[in-house]
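so my prof wants the structure for this chain in the tokens format not the other one, which i didnt know existed until like an hour ago. anyway here's the sequence
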Amino acid sequence: MTTFEEMEAAWKAQSAKLDQVNLLLVDQLRGKSVSRVKAPLRSLIVSLWLEIALSATGMLLMGSFLAEHVTQARFVWPAALMDVWFGATLIAAIRQLLTATKINYDEPIASVQQQLGRLRILRLKTFRWLFLTGQIVWWMPFLITSLKMVFGVDAYRYLTPGFIMANMLAGLALIPLVLQVLKTFRFAANASWYERLADIIAGRSLAEAQRQAQIVADFIR
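here's what i got, hopefully its the right format
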């Protein structure tokens, strides 16, 4: 006849085996989850290095242009704006790269999700900011500096100061207008790339990312 002690020992042995199976399943799930994340993250890191290189190149070019035309105010202000924008882009790319490379896959899955959530929020904020400020920088400043730098053409020979100022103001006015228009539209989950872009610019993607990050943070607590 089986005694109570024998039943208890058998139960403990079975529990130990179940614990081992659970650990194996967790390891398998972690391995699958990490493998799904690592590939796109590696691509992101490569693209961030490319952004850093391009931004640094842009800063160097604008800095050289500024030094060459430092006594000509009509070229200084657009080049300075471009240089500041490239500098901000460089800093933003470095911040994202540091965040991406610090992700620790050995931590619990929820913690890895939290780190990825922070990276996603940072990228969405950065892209939105760069796109909106680009409405100012990539109109007249880019035209004036690129014409002079690449073709040696003085844009002021063909554009009046009033026209340039009107275009700069139009770029400023376009920011709240774009935001307001895009906020009136909502797209389905299987939206096209330009509809997803609209969601990012309007801030809906950022709000959703912050909501998901809060859910993960509440779960960890």
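also thought this was worth mentioning. Residues 42-220 form one domain.
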